[in-house]
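Annotated sample (chain length 188).
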Amino acid sequence: MGRTLDEKKTIVAELKQTLSESQLAVVIDYQGLSVAEITDLRNRLRPTGTICKVTKNTFMRLAVEEDENWRPMTEFLSGTSAFLLVKDDVGSAIRAYQEFKKTAKKTEFRGGVMQGQALNEEQVKAIADLPSKEELIAQVAGAINSIATKLAVGINEVPASLGRSINEVPASLGRCIQGVAAKEEGNS
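Output written by the structure step:
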C-alpha cells in the first residue's frame, strides 16, 4: 500500500521547511550506494550542518515548484536522487561530500542550487574553496585589531613626542644662553 495523501503532504511540507533553512542544495545520483554507505555520507555531513535527504523526485518537485530560490533544482530531478541540504558550513559540507565521493566512487554530482541559481560541479567547488564564516570573522577581527593597535601606537606617540620636545626646550635654551654668553665674551 502506498502513502496516504496526508502523509505525502507532510513529506512535502517537511522538505519545504528544510529548504527554507538551507543555503545550498546539491542533487546527487545515489544509485548503487548501500544503506551503510548512505549512513556514512550522512555521518560525514552531520557536523557541517547538512542533511542528506533521500526522497522521491516528485516530492522534491512539489516542494520547490513555488519557490523561486529552489525552482532551478527541477532540471536535476531524474533517476535516483539524494539531496544534500546545506544549512551552515557550505565549504566543509562540499569537501565532506567530495571525500565521500572519492571513497565510494558510486555517486554522481547532478547539480546544485544557491540563491535561485543552478550551479555545476565546478561552481559548487569554487564556493567550497571560499573561506568559511569563522575564517572570515577571524580575518575581519585581525584587521580591526591591527587598526586598533596602530591607532593606539599613534595616539601614544603624540604625548611621547610632546614630552621629548618639552624636555628638549631647557637643553636648547641652555645652549642658546651659552651661545649668547660666548658671543658677548667674544665682543668684550
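Annotation: The mean pLDDT is 85.
Annotation: The chain has two domains: 3-129, 130-187.
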